[in-house]
Amino acid sequence: MAFSFFIPTTVLPSWLVLSLRSAQLRFNCRNVPSVCLCLVAFLGLIRTACGASDDPAREHVLPLFPLIHAQADPTNDTLEVDLCWPLISYQSQPRRTYFGLHPLFSYEADRNQQRKTFDFLWPFCHYQHLRDSDRSRETRQATVLPLFNWRRFQSPEFKSRTLTLLPLLFTGSQGSGQGYFILFPFFWHAKQARITIPFGTQERSSFFAVFPFYGRFENFLQRERMRFYLWPLLTTSRRKEFDSVNICWPFLGMSRGPQAIGWRAWPIFAYGKRGEESLRISYLWPLGHYKRMKRESEKPDKYHLFLPFFGTLRQEDRTLDFVFPFYARATSPSRRTHAYLWPIFSSTEDLERRYKQINLFWFLFKYRWGEDVRSLRLFPLFSTMSTPEQKQTSFLWLLYNYKFSQTRHYSSERRYLFPLLIHKTKTWSDGRKDSRLIILPFFNYWSTKEGKRTVSSLWPLWYVSSSGMERNWEPLWRIYERRCDADGSKEIRILGRVYHSVETPREHFKEINLLLFNHRSRNGDTSWSVLGGLLGWTKTKSGSAPILFYHSFQ
Fold it and tell me: I need a surface site. Which of 49, 112, 165, 439 has the fewest CB within 10 A?
């Protein structure tokens, strides 16, 4: 003989993530007592989680941490759910929603900042949607490192869109028919577009090309006009009134302009002359270079270099002479440098900042002295530097570093003991401080000039702050966290919710969550339970009541 029970899903509220469409249980008669007992306990657990109570404003909790912990507070419209902590987390607040499956993906909606963020295996996949408070401007961006990037910006005055698929596809539209499309290297098209990736230029360019057969470019790569035919067989370009023709670029080329001519048989010899103003010659590139340029002063600028063996340079107020490695001399109105058997010895006199400096074996030993500066380096063992605005000290190069700097509005101190310690302090002119202390892998402390303070542990990676790391990875190793605000509010979490306390001017709350036991205290009201409410007790200002099979008899 068998019995069948059906649990309708209409008894479950919308906030409960796990909905039961139907549940059917079949059993033998001899198992009726045990199955009925389990069924009653299960229904009581669902009833507790769903908030079956005479008081609709009552806080509802399902405390089976770390397997499951659900807490709904109708008074402030919040819901928090943890499943298999710290792997799955869901938070719903009036101004923020968060869901994370750590570290696989996370979703966050911040309605205060009009921002939505989605991460998948951060930092490799990231999506963000950002709007202004009045919704007049909107930005969407998606990134898959290192290959894919998509961005869209929209405002009442301007619209733009870019799509990059490295190293093949680069597209973008910038409003009013302006845009570009590049299928690298085969097809190129642009109309009055700014192409920051991959060329990094802010000038508006137009071009059309089918590589390697034909291409024309306007205002591209600092040239007013470029053409190529069966590249690199024949190319032409125009830059600052100079026209150039190249055959089998870069080997053969010729250029002409107003009273100017140039030609090239690279890398053997190249020649360029503009009237009496300038003359340029290179030979055995990149070894030999000669240039002479006439300026308004009587002395022309000129240099002759045969790298790296010897060279001379003469400008109006600057000179350079060197015969490598025996001797080098450089002079300017603000600085004089001499070197002998470089890198064995060099000396410098800075006339503007009024100091002298000697170097032995290039960067291994340096000593600087003057009216406002003292500096000593014995690399990699030790280095120190002191000026009225800055102080720096290091031991064993990267092992320990200290730096102090002073500006008009604040002073800054930084200490690094790699890979164990990071300490940063910024002191503002009004006495307020921003401070950060990290002791790897145990401890992280952060305080702001607004009075907020945060302490957390563990902290296993050498980084200071990252919103993406905090959303996706930190929950996996954070065992302790303490947050304090300027108004005296304080929150402490140990292992998520094993111990959780909140103290504000209006509320004092503490809870202990274990898989078999839960204890809660809020403003003098206390309760404890076993297995989420199978057995327990509540005590309030109005009296006490037992909890049995997930039912309160208050």
Answer: 112
